Amino acid sequence: EPEVTQTPSHQVTQMGQEVILRCVPISNHLYFYWYRQILGQKVEFLVSFYNNEISEKSEIFDDQFSVERPDGSNFTLKIRSTKLEDSAMYFCASSVYGGYQPQHFGDGTRLSIL
Amino acid sequence: DAKTTQPNSMESNEEEPVHLPCNHSTISGTDYIHWYRQLPSQGPEYVIHGLTSNVNNRMASLAIAEDRKSSTLILHRATLRDAAVYYCIPQTGANNLFFGTGTRLTVIP
Q1: Do A108 and B93 touch (CB under 8 A)?
Q2: Mind listing the pLDDT tens digit for each residue in A64-83?
Q3: Cα A4 from chain centroid (whole Å)
Q4: Which residues of chain A does B93 touch, with a Cβ-Cβ cutoff of 8 Å?
């Protein structure tokens, strides 16, 4: 069964550094998402992306965050200047269409900011 | 967005059926009810969704109350692999899922 893959599984970065998290969504899916989960807390929506544009974003997704689909397969989340509070699991997801369609999640990248 | 209420935790014996309840009394008429689960150290996994009618798939069944203010996820025979946090999520049609705290299901061998 096709799945969403995320790399790396664990990223350690110094505070203030830029980090890029990578995702390969399921190939025929058109909508892409990023979520995060701080240790012990809820899964939180960050952003959704369709047709090379952000379609929705949460308050968490401020100017320090950006997303890109640089080619036909990858979907990336960039954090420009990381803060300690950015430490979390970051999950990528994709769906065939938006709205009520099921979202398929990767197993996440654990981001640790030192 | 509709608020949900789920038990913090539930236990089930292996190979027994499990009924996981969810109250969503503020749900709107067009919200679908989605269920996801999160196994330890994994990303959320889609389980099932429905609007008004009861739904079945290979993983589970979803029973939706006639007034749509509550729903129940039914695992017909719990296995150890079903131990996870189960989330009930009314979805408005927007592209984002709002996860609550869910129900942590423990399966006892």
Answers
A1: no
A2: 999 999 887 899 999 999 99
A3: 11
A4: 99-100
